[in-house]
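Q: Sequence in, structure out?
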Amino acid sequence: MMYAHGGAPPSSEEPATAAPPRRLRVLLADGHALFRDGLAELLSMEADLDIVGRVGDSIATIETCRQTRPHLVLLDIRLPYHPILTTMQSVREAAPHARFVVLATDDEPRLFQEVLAAGAHGVLMKTATREELVGAIRAIGYQGKTFLSVSQRSAREIARPARANPLSPRESQILELAAKALSNAQIATLLFISEGTVKRHLTNIYAKLGAVSRLDAVNRARAGGLIQPAVEGGELPPPAE
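A: Exactly. Output:
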């Protein structure tokens, strides 16, 4: 494991003139109940940390952020329902001053780069120690620092300039979901956009990659390192009543 912190915080933080809070309101968002409850028990022992919620999916995360306005969100990188970047964007709209600590099980340096570029203040592997986690929460919550506790491989990759990607962030999200065999309608539901918008993005993706089909686009993007390898994602949210 590599431990590092410092540097300029992402642009999504509060203005530098804002006084830091005396206590930190923390929201725990993780798809595994045992891990989530263990975090809550561990952090409840810290006198300056208030756990304002425990949630298991992105929909509950967004709603709880809107209600509780946490200072900091511990966010599972594979939280069920929505892609991590979509969840972060929605949380920022619900609680503009919330800061993110992203928790990961797998070593995914390109995805780590993306969440940091999107405004996360920290990335920690779930194998991090208690001292690393609590240190990250305080360094980020009180001082706005960035904090990494990842493998040396990921640290090297994060430090390198990101590879040029012809796809926009939204196009990358859509192709990631298409690679999981989701339909246009399912992708539209997950990203809060219309099915027609999904189709237009796919048309643009095919043109940029020189692809002739959905499968061809996925294969070309994977070969070029533009999207992640297939992983098992969370189930879709239930239909609205």
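The chain is about 45% helix and 15% strand.
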